[in-house]
Fold these 2 entries.
Entry 1:
Amino acid sequence: MTRRPVTVAPDATVAAARSAMRRGRFRHLPVVAAAELVGVVSAGDLQVPPGAPVEAAEALADRPLADVMSTRPITVWPDEPVEVAARLLVDHDVGCLPVLADEGLVGILTESDVFAVLLRLLGGGEPSSRITLVLPDVPGALGRATTVVGDLGVNLLSVVTAAGPEPGTREVVLRAGTINAAPVVAALVAAGFPATGPGRPGPGGPPGQ
Amino acid sequence: MSGAAALAADERLAAYDFGPGHPFQAGRLAAGLSLLRAAKVLDDGDLLRFEPAADADLELVHDRDYLAAVARFADPGAAAADPVGAARFGLVGDNRPFPGMDEAARLVAGATAAAVDAVAAGDRTHVFAPVAGLHHAQRRRAVGFCLVNDVAVAIARRTRTSPLRVLYVDLDAHHGDGVQAAFYDDPRVCTVSLHETGRYLFPGTGEVHELGRPPGTGRSLNVPLEPRTGDEEFLAAFDAVVEPLAAAFRPDLLVTQNGCDGHAGDPLSDLTLSLRGYRDLARRLHRLAHRHCRGRWVATGGGGYDLERVVPRAWALLWSELSGRRLPSRVPPSWLAGHPGPAWWVEPRRRRREDGPAGTREMEERNRRTVRAVRRLALPPSVRVVYPLAASGGTTQRLPGWEPRAGRYLAPRGPLVLRDRCPASLLRRLEVDPGIHTFVRAAEQEREVLARIAEEPASEVAVAHTPEGVVVGYVAVLEPEPGTRFASLPGLLEVGAVEVATGWRRGGVASALLGFAVEPDPFEDRILVASGLAWHWDLDQSGLSASAYRGVLARVFEAAGFEVLQTDEPEIAYHPANLFVARVGGRVPPARRAAFTSRLVRGHHPMP
């Protein structure tokens, strides 16, 4: 989230909010009156529909934000897990969540913030190889598979799992911290876990670690 | 075409050895050097002297505490006692510590630095450093068998003290992420990496839109190719991107990373190149060095893990190309006795199968889309025209004829003649003011470029020249490159270039010439578009900021009846100073105008 976000008052104009967004390079603004969160405006609220007459655009620019903001916005606590925040964004089809603590508004969480977390969770920011495997959906299967990888001396940067292609299976995407993924894939396959990944068996079998 | 060449390698580099069973081991060097000697293409006089790199040089690219960690964990006991501390710097797994690794890494960096020094100073024309090109190493982390970024160190040592412009071409199967990162904001070091896409392959980066950061935006380029890409397509991508990029960038020095791990037999990638392909790439790089860098070329070995069949042959082919030494017709039997394998240097030519394995067509189509996107981003339109894509298959609609016109314009510096429909023959007779240096080194070449644009059936060139016949400005109207967002609209043309020589700027020449160029009646049936990408602009010469330059450009176009339009076309939207303008002719039917307008904003960006 962004801490201590820029805020606007409900009697500020649409034009003022637009210029605050342009200056700060963001698209969501909490609206605060007397230290109380009273709404949010997003960039979309500040625009006329495409094809509207020029007069409509001019009239909108002078309107107070109280007329266009979303009142009673969905909010979260600062200690909420990210998956809860993500579900609120999706379920309510909103682009941001003001973060409220006992003392009032402390931050704002936007879709971009959730994406940044997602990128970190998926291991996409570090040099790594992507390996996909399908496991039986039973306790211990994932542990056995990751042991196979660890025994090769390869570090795992991220492990993401989801329901697999067939009932009773689980699909797993690993980001392995190695440039030499073929031996990892081969070891997984040898251990009975169907796996795919980049690279191929070397000229005289996998070069192994 | 070769001058004195040198090899920056000797047996000391065998110290860079992660041990038996590891893909990067001493055996690589031994097999390669022994093949060069057996083939009698290497004399002792070819060997370049080098010493381990100094701390001060390594610290240009690496943090001091990282270098200290490499030294500390070079003692095998230290790494065993503190595995977590070693892992913090990436010294684990792929980059497991080995005794003496700090000294070995210094030697690699020293070899590359000596190679770059020798070429930059003119002592040698080309140098090949086979155990070098450790392109993954980061500022404070060992990555992908790379302990130090020798290439970045060697380049940084020179660019720090001299105004050298360096083109770095990375052909390794893996993205050249470490070198890219080291120069991501540096406009004088242009990096271009051709590699297997990072969707699955290590390190996972190298997307088309990784373009650099100001002031180096547009100087980091990436061509991510599909798994199973082979010789033909790899070479096509090279031709479509690297050659014109070199022409546009005007490097003083070419540094290449010639990793051969994209070979079909290599265990670490999914590309399917052959030694034939690597030989052809070496030939192209050699030609490029002489065409654009006065021959100055440093090649590094990079990756390659088919240690017996591929790597030694790939090194021998590259060394032969760069040194001008001819390889014997067959691999020497004496060498084959210790390294069993075929007697050929490159695979026998196979007949190309009409239909490859399933998915080949889709793979080819994706590669084509990628290459087109990179060209849009990397190359000004006038460069793209001079280096067209093979078999572009555009829908050429020649403008209906009109008599060539001539006009006059009185610039503050003197009178000018404006001419349109300039035929190539006329352009070849005129001189070109040396102040026009869009993308080639010499005015001589610039004239040839103009003539070649004029020879394209669908393009028009208008020039402003002095009464003595010296061209001081030109406007080129071209057909848009196929595959771009507006290209398929019938009757649409692109203003590819508006250039005025430095000494003649700020005198209204550009406005006058552009207005003159688009005045003829046939343009009333056409939509003309032009885009300005900020990193193509001559900001150094003009002394303007990108946004001020944009303003100047917008006024020039507006004076000629163009309108500045908002579009979410990804290339335009990439940088806030980028500019898109259009001029819809008076006789363009409303339906066509609407079709154009509806393409301006699409709301989502289907990525190539």
Entry 2:
Amino acid sequence: MKIFAITLNTFKEAVRDKILYTILIFALFMIGGSTLLAALSIGQEAKIIQDLGLSCISLFGTLIAIFLGIGLVHKEIEKRTLYALLSKPLPRDQFILGKYLGLSLVLLTNVCVMGLGLFFLARIYLASWPWHLLLALAFIFLELLVITALATLFSSFTTPTLSAIFTLSIFFIGHLSSDLKLFAARFMGPTSRFLIDLLYYLLPNLRHFHLEASLIHGLALNGIVLFQTICYALSYGIALLLLAMVIFSRRDLK
Amino acid sequence: MDSPAITANDLSKDFRVGFTLRRKRVLYGLNLEVKRGEIFGYLGPNGAGKTTTIKLLMGLIFPTSGEISLLGGKVGDSQVKSRIGFVPENPYFYDHLTGWEFMQYCGHLLGMDRAARDAQIWKLLDRLGIRDAAHTRLRKYSKGMVQRIGLAQALLNHPELVILDEPMSGLDPIGRKEIRDLILSLKEEGKTVFFSSHILPDAEMICDRVGILVDGRLKEVGVLEEMLEAKIESIEVTVREADLELLARLPLSLSSPPLQRGGKVLLSVPNEESLQETLSCLKEEGVRIVSIVPQRETLEEYFLKEVSSSSE
Amino acid sequence: MARRLGYSDRRRWILLLCLCWVGAWVIAPDLDQRKLSRSREGSSYLIPAQQLRPLLLGYDLIAADLFWLETIQYLGRHLLGDQKFTDLYPRLFRVVSLDPYFVDAYRLGGIFLAYSAGQVDEAIRLLKRGAAFNPDRWEPAHDLGILYYLCKKDYPQALYWLQRADRLPGRPDYVPRFVARLYASTGHTQTAIEMWIGIYDQTNLSWVKDIARRELGKLGVHLPPETEG
């Protein structure tokens, strides 16, 4: 299928990008380096290594998603590779979808590489195989899918710089939104509260994807909550992609 | 009866420019028809709107008003696209892919099956003389090679219509000749070729018809010979073994004094009627006539005239 | 001009480079020393967790870990130094605010506060928070019980907390025995007897049976001697 041709090409192109390797190696160093930090604790090595490891994977995954995502479409326009592509019988929305899937594949690979490193490292400090890490990684990947969808959306109609700014801003707000909502509920008037609530529902609440607290401490997980979180990620991501497809289909490619 | 290859009706395009996003018109009510099987040269100075027109044809940008139809179908229709080949101006393709990988990618997007793809790719690489570079990465290709692989990807799907944006820009004379030859061979295969250029001699050599676009307006469209025939400036007659004194005594109606060049003399006759008179006069005197060449306005001169008249 | 950089010039550049480097090496420790002596640890400089959370963008756990490590350093410094722990509670509180399920922080924090810093009330406050956020963990409840017993001599409270701990999974084996003793010392003799009988019956360990027997004896209940089979 044509979308997969684009997916594969995007994957191949990203995999040859040096930025990717730089970030990946740095992340692996940090995960390994967490052992040094953990040595300063009194018996909390396992916790610190897992915390730091998962945070690294989440943070660096986000960086990769943003850096690669913002140039996703714009690079093709700037280099004019897009013109020859779109002259083929390929609908524009399939192009965007293919690019998104390609980038998601890159992220999956990265999360797996970093995750495996963490998985084996944590095993050294724990009595058994840390299967719970896999679940945490799965949800981190879900978060990355949403962030990538955001970056793809912005990439479909603005420059890389603006895309980066918008995506990062939403990334920040996405982590703050629950706090903002609480703050507004307690301290602000009805209009401000309404606006903040609007913002809360419009923008993604990225805290939902951070299960580390529950998983690392071995707390029970609510199956319904997990299922809802997955649905949330999928529906939000799909909405963003659909918007990207619509915008890109109507756009003049100057 | 087959529909025309390209039809544009009252096609206009505005862009929004500047901070205030004010509208700027770049194409004014373009009416154009390109017939099947012809080579059409879309000519104009830089900034005239040639690339804009082509982008409109390819569905890369959308018209502000007017209609376009390609091969009887709508722009952007997948069926239509599968019958068109396009090479953008100064093409650039994926650095990290080899020529072969790139052609495979294009073939995938065209929905070609493996066998057909492979066969056609080799055939085209051979035809365009880049077979040896098939497994070299595109970033190592020279400009001429990039142009050629651009053509290869455009011809992959046996298109009926080939659209080229400035196909000869940046090429050396040999490269330009190769492209000219290719375009002619495409015509022999029954394809329609629409290309834009600001290099007039090339157009002059191969086009059946041309359109001249200046400042977003199509000034003239027509068969090249017809456009220029009306503009014969003079006829140059070259004679031998005549001395200027003798010629001065003859009742010749010349548009300018005779010119001596080596052993020959050049006479400039204003039109065909005067030519007959002059020729019979010269024959009577026993002057040897070496050649008779009508001095047409070249396309370039015509072009410059059109451009300067529009800027007045 | 570039050609003028001959051999001797290069040596001069290298020498200059080395001098700068050595200079930096020499100054650095002194700089560290001065900064250290000027550093203030007052709690007025500790930003509370509430204000920090927005900046952490969801990476609360990592921050908690880092603050925990910092707290350990703080503790060590003052244990070996002036034995004053004015900031210990705020620091611990910050850690557990960011990671309320960090049971080790509550436990060790409680121990340090009560036994190193002599701040028993703060220790109790911390552990109560730990119990509230981790109702399924035996550790905070257990530690509270011990604290009330040893430091506050408040046996009813000790009983309450150890009872809670007794009901939670994974609790140490001695907890029921402790609870039984506390029932006895708080005047709930009947309950104490029942508990000890239960302990006697449920255990296979002879030394535990001996303890149960002894305690029951103190309460006026004399069990028949052990028979084989």
